[in-house]
Amino acid sequence: MFGLRFFALLLCGFGLLACNDNTLTQLGETNPPPLGDGDNNGDGDDDDDDGDDEDDDGTYDDGQPDDDDDTPPASDDDDDDGDDDDGDDDDGEDPDEFLEDCPAGGVPITDFIADDGGDEIYTLSWGPTEMSATLVAPVGGLYAVYDSYVYESGGSQTNESGFLRIRNSLNPDGVPSTPNCGLDYIFQDSDNSGAPPAPLIYLGSFELVAGDNELTMYHYCELFRQGYCEDFHIGSSDANSSCNSGGVNSLHLVGEGICLVPR
């Protein structure tokens, strides 16, 4: 590099090269600029070939070609502990499938009124395969919904499985926030070899409004017979309590057993 600069000075001295301070400075540089960094054609864009926008100030490269926006992508983290939980919940963890009791902080419902005026709804394998009630919540929010002993027939009815939709002005389709089968969350029969691990059974997480919410419980077997979510079927499809048999596989949801756990 010293030889190049000395040669340039000779050319300048003989008038064969137009020289100024900038020319001499560039010839004296020992480190070339990094490849793909900067604007080489005067159009204001990064001219490298890899599509990224590597900028001189060392800020975040978002991988988008020449967009001049180096802001790191916003995280879905909505809490204060820095985790990225990609959901509306504040703890970033899936709810427990079973609970012994409604925990501290759990919210009791204000009322539960079945369409027939009672406090319980039920569904059966062949019908009724759906039944509705009005769930009255004291406070709106995203809740994990639990109820006690939704299935209770042991090994004699092995497909007492189902799913909920809870409709309101914020969630007109009533779908859960964390589905496990298409748009829905299937709660699967778990008392075929004995009592469930705990009395309260997780039925899905839903956005509720303060006041009236329309809750509908659907029987899983109707889905299975249509060819959906077949992995949730328990036992052979031609067994006595399969969804194709004449077994009732009854599900029950009682208002007084409901516990709402804020998420």
Mean pLDDT: 75
Q: Are there runs of 5+ residues with pLDDT below 50, and where? A: 1-14, 21-90
How would you sum up the major sheet? 4 strands, antiparallel
Number of helices: 3
Helix and strand sequence: HHEEEEEEEEHEE
Tally of DSSP β-strands: 10
What portion of residues belong to β-strands? 15-25%
Molecular shape: globular
Structural class: mainly beta
Distance between the termini: 65 Å
Helix content: under 10%
Specify Rg, calculated over alpha carbons: 32 Å
What is the topology, as strand order, of the major beta sheet? 1-7-5-10
Explained architecture:
The chain is mostly beta strands. It is built from three helices and ten strands. The strands form three sheets. It has a four-stranded antiparallel sheet, with no helix packed on it. The chain has a four-stranded antiparallel sheet with strand order 2-4-8-6. The longest helix is centred in the first third of the chain and has 12 residues, at 2-13.
Topology:
Blueprint lengths: L1 H12 L7 H7 L70 E2 L11 E4 L5 E4 L6 E8 L3 E8 L13 E6 L32 E9 L2 E9 H6 L25 E4 L4 E4 L1
Antiparallel strand pairs: 1-7, 2-4, 3-9, 4-8, 5-7, 5-10, 6-8
Question: Summary?
Answer:
The protein is mostly beta strands and about 260 residues long. The protein is built from three helices and ten strands, in the order H-H-E-E-E-E-E-E-E-E-H-E-E. The longest helix is centred in the N-terminal third of the chain and has 12 residues.
